Structure formats: C-alpha cells, structure tokens
Amino acid sequence: MFSIIRAFAIILIALLGGKAIAYLLPFSFPASIIGMLLLFIAFNTGLIKVHWVQSGAHYLLTYMALLFIPIGVGLINYFDLVITQWPALLASITFGTLIVMAIVGHVFQRFNPRD
C-alpha cells in the first residue's frame, strides 16, 4: 500500500512541477508533458528509481480505459459536427498516425544503427 501512495505522490509532484513551469513560460505548453519530461529526467539522473513508481503506474494503466469515458460522452454532444466533418477527421487521424510512425521509426533507426 505504501508503494502505491509513494508512486502517486511522485507522479503528482512531477505534474505539479510541470504546472509550475508551464505557468512561468511565456507561451502555452501542456503541463502534463512538462511533468512527464521532469519525471523522465529524474529517472535518467537516478534521482527517482523506476521501481518506486512502477506499482502506481501499473495501477493507473490498469484502469486507464475508464479515463476515456468522459471524452466519449462529451463527443456525443458534438455528434452532428463529427458527421459533417468526418472526411477531415479521418484524413487527420490517418495522416497524423502515419507521420508519427515514420518519425518514430526514423528516430529509432538513427539511435539503433545496424552493425
């Protein structure tokens, strides 16, 4: 039980740090992304051990599908807009996915060259 509380506290501290940095920035940037970067840096520098966060992260991932229910319900409010704009939505989802896959593949190949 203590490990889950510790994991949630570490994740929350990273998020709050991200919110503080996002508040100080002169432009808009998602605080959650900054918080993940802070957590990544803390992992890589050894400030935080992965096993300290692993149990809480596993618990969050187990119930992550529940977090998408409010988004789905909110989408129903704009169903008429989704129906009228479905070609643009389909194109952006398709091309966005392909672009992300190409970039990730390129970066992976660049950092892991074949010998």
From TrEMBL:
Major place of residence: membrane
Protein name: CidA/LrgA family protein
InterPro entries: LrgA/CidA (IPR005538)
UniProt keywords, alphabetically: Cell membrane, Membrane, Transmembrane, Transmembrane helix
Top-level taxon of the source organism: Bacteria
Location within or outside the cell: Cell membrane
Transmembrane parts of this sequence: 32-52, 59-79, 85-108
Entry membrane topology: Multi-pass membrane protein
